């Protein structure tokens, strides 16, 4: 079992796209410090419930939006449509990024 440390959380926050960091700090401000101790799930669960836009997902994965659209067309990337908007589940993006990174590391 991995221990959650302040440094690990900080590094996770730094890797977040700027809009997600803004949401995080908004959540912290909204819920404030109502309690003395918060669990990781309490802090990050709201972020996972909010879908990423195409732009946010591209930023998170470090690719261009056109690449995202190509991956969608090829069926490589799970997504949903809300009206004309393409959105992505945060947990699915995280898993995709992890798999993409391990795949690219094995190709080197």
Q: If you compute it from the alpha carbons, what radius of gyration comes out, rounded to the nearest whole angstrom? A: 16 Å
CATH topology tier name of the largest domain? Multidrug-efflux Transporter Regulator, Chain: A, Domain 2
CATH architecture tag of the largest domain: Orthogonal Bundle
Note the gap between the termini: 30 Å
Unreliable residue stretches = none
Query: Can you tell me the number of structural domains?
Result: 2
Q: Which structural category do the helix and sheet elements fall into?
A: mainly alpha
Shape call: globular
Strand content: 5-15%
What is the share of helical residues? 55-70%
Q: What is the highest CATH level, the class of the largest domain?
A: Mainly Alpha
- Biggest sheet, in brief? 3 strands, antiparallel
What's the SSE pattern?
HHHEHHEEH
Overall mean pLDDT: 81
Lateral arrangement of strands in the main beta sheet:
1-3-2
Number of strands: 3
Mind explaining what this structure looks like?
It is built from 6 helices and 3 strands; from the N terminus they run H-H-H-E-H-H-E-E-H. By secondary structure, the chain is mainly alpha-helical. A 3-stranded antiparallel sheet has the order 1-3-2. Helix 2 packs across helix 3 and helix 4 crosses helix 5. It is globular.
Task: Write a compact overview of the structure shown.
The protein contains 6 helices and 3 strands, in the order αααβααββα.
């Amino acid at each position: 079992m991995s221990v959650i440390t302040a440094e690990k959380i900080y590094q996770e926050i730094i890797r977040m796209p700027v809009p997600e960091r803004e949401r995080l700090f908004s959540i912290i401000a909204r819920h404030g410090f109502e309690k003395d101790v918060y669990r990781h799930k309490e802090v990050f669960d709201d972020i996972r419930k909010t879908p990423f836009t195409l732009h946010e997902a591209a930023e998170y994965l470090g690719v261009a939006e056109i690449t995202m659209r190509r991956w969608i067309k090829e069926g490589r990337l799970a997504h949903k449509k809300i009206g004309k908007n393409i959105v992505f589940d945060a947990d699915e993006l995280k898993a995709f990024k992890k798999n993409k990174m391990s795949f690219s590391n094995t190709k080197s």
